[in-house]
Amino acid sequence: MDDRKSLIAIGLIVVATILTIVVGLMPGARTLSAEAVLHALIEPDGKIESILVWTLRLPRSLSAAVAGAGLAVSGYLLQSLTRNPLADPGITGVTAGAIAPIVACFVLLPSVPGFWYPFVGLVGGLGAASVTFWVSRGGNGRPLHLALSGISVSLFLGAITIYVLLLAGPQSTALLFWISGGFAGRTWTHLAQMLPWMIIGVGGALAFHRIISMFALSDHAAAGMGVQLTFWKPVLLLLGIAPVAGVAPVAGPVAFVGLAAPHIARLLQPRGTRAELALTAALGALIVTAADLIARTVAIPKELPVGILTALLGGPIFIYLIQRGRPGLGRGSL
């Protein structure tokens, strides 16, 4: 796919995401007509329709789109950095590493302000990723060994999270829904909390796309082209974990987006790492926005956790990758 076709594909996916957001403003406990939605968007007047659109539904949908883009790029960075098709924030233990300390702070250290939760998640995600990569070296960093190591770390941290939830008492119900992943009740404030972390991850990846493309070859090739491995590996790992740290306090774990979106983008064969990154971000935004729309409309007035729907998409892709593998992606080396 040449540059022009890549831009067209990215543009079409962005338009599809915008349409999904607009359509998502209509259904709910009180359904709005398309005319009412357009009027509320163009001329907000403080009536119930404007409140539903601007206060409840629009910030929620935008939060889903931003989170999806960030998580997709996070998965792309982890896959490129390890040259492992199974790398993903959930599978490598990064998500569990971010969630466990956030839950512990919420339950055991309620005096810690929510402002610090992304930083807590960042440290936890880095720690979990480090353990996963260290353990997987015992299998020479092969894709399946990385997946097994990450799943083991995730199960261990998940057990800790469940234990802490048992200590939460009445708060555990709300926390359990949050742990399932979702954007119910998310406001402009939540979007503003996530946005800097998404900008760091997505913007940093696009800015360093040449470095990322060199890592996709091999460590030896990257070093031969002048890349300082000891500097850039931690930098790219931080960029990959930053979106997870931003999303986790707001929406909990949203599974498999980071696995599915990069592979779907590669199937479209965009030209160059920058186009591949942009296409991955656009696909991630579309996947999570669509999943959020389905989650809150399939059983009105109730809703499903978004994480369940994204897992339904990513699970089969994960199984396919284990069974068939992806040509062109070699052993991890981090």
Compute the average pLDDT: 88
Share of residues in helices: over 70%
Q: In whole angstroms, how far apart are the ends?
A: 30 Å
Regarding CATH, which class?
Mainly Alpha
CATH topology: ABC transporter involved in vitamin B12 uptake, BtuC
| H/E topology pattern | HHHHHHHHHHHHHH
For the secondary structure, the number of strands is 0
Q: pLDDT below 50 for ≥5 consecutive residues: which ranges?
A: 326-334
CATH superfamily: ABC transporter involved in vitamin B12 uptake, BtuC
Keywords:
single chain; 334 residues; mainly alpha; ABC transporter involved in vitamin B12 uptake, BtuC
List the helices and strands and how they pair.
Blueprint: H1 3-23, H2 34-42, H3 48-82, H4 94-108, H5 117-136, H6 143-168, H7 172-179, H8 188-207, H9 209-215, H10 219-224, H11 229-251, H12 257-267, H13 273-297, H14 306-324
Helix pairs in contact: 1-13, 2-3, 3-8, 3-11, 3-12, 3-13, 4-5, 4-6, 4-11, 5-6, 5-11, 8-11, 12-13
What does this protein look like?
The chain has 334 residues and is an all-alpha fold. It has a single domain, classed as Orthogonal Bundle (ABC transporter involved in vitamin B12 uptake, BtuC). 73% of the residues lie in helices and 0% in strands. The chain contains 14 helices and no strands. The protein has helices spanning 3-23, 34-42, 48-82, 94-108, 117-136, 143-168, 172-179, 188-207, 209-215, 219-224, 229-251, 257-267, 273-297, 306-324. Helix 12 crosses helix 13. The longest helix has 35 residues, at 48-82. It is globular, with a radius of gyration of 20 Å. Residues 326-334 have low confidence and may be disordered.
